[in-house]
Structure of Putative zinc-finger domain-containing protein:
Amino acid sequence: MVFMHQDANVQAYVAGDLPPKRRRVMEHHLSRCAECRDLVAEFRRNERRRKTRAESGEPPVDTGSTVMVGTRRRMVSNAVPVVGSIITIVAFVAVLMAAWNAGGSDASHEGGPADDFTTSGQPLSGFQVADLRRHGWSCPDLRTLGLDMTSSIGFRKGDVGSVTMTYSGNGSAVVLSETRPLGSEHTAQDDASSGQDSGADASEAGSALSATTPDAGRTVTVTVGGAEYVVHSSLNQAETTALVDRVKEIAEDRQEDVRAAEVGGWDRLSRGFARLVDPTR
């Protein structure tokens, strides 16, 4: 049962100044409230000290204020767990919202910013690359491999778009092209079933790589979910294999983002939590 403490009436109760009705209410409350009983006992102890000091000629002390300071401290100490619980709940809700948003809420296979690409190519800012990722593109973040994206260019040929990204780090250079059909009418399933035609367009759209390809190295082509990734690397064989595996992992992860955006629920939350732990996913 929830009831209010009678702190304001304690001093008057101890002094015998409460009217009979309020006194009965106070006594009924004291029969159930150990905290208020302790407060009454403290008032009575202070009252005895006051009388003792008065009889001995010592200067008086405001015992009421002393007790009320203790009361306020008690109220603050009681409020701390409540405030802590509220902060915990707010933090939990904030983490849930962050995970929900990070789980691919707006990922799709629509072209989005890629619809503005031109055949001559257009340099992309970091914000534009992030926008492409939100629309289902991979645009892999390879910092976990020690490679920083130094530039990116978007191209378009008909209904096919391509992004050429240059990475550098550890004395090595990597050029990666990601090519995929544009427009909401193209889905991963349609691309997978289109076979040779989609691959042919992708190869043409990725031809702009020749100007930025490292002078020496390896070239690997992989297809994930209808998108083609052409990797030109000056890394050694083992490092190139690790690079391609990472590109495939990110591409497959992006496909899962798209599906999570469609189905929502726990799958989206779980992916969001994973992305909060590893922002490069």
In short: The chain has nine helices and six strands. The longest helix spans residues 63-102. Residues 105-109, 184-216 have pLDDT under 50 and may be disordered. The beta strands are 122-123, 148-157, 160-169, 172-181, 218-224, 227-233.
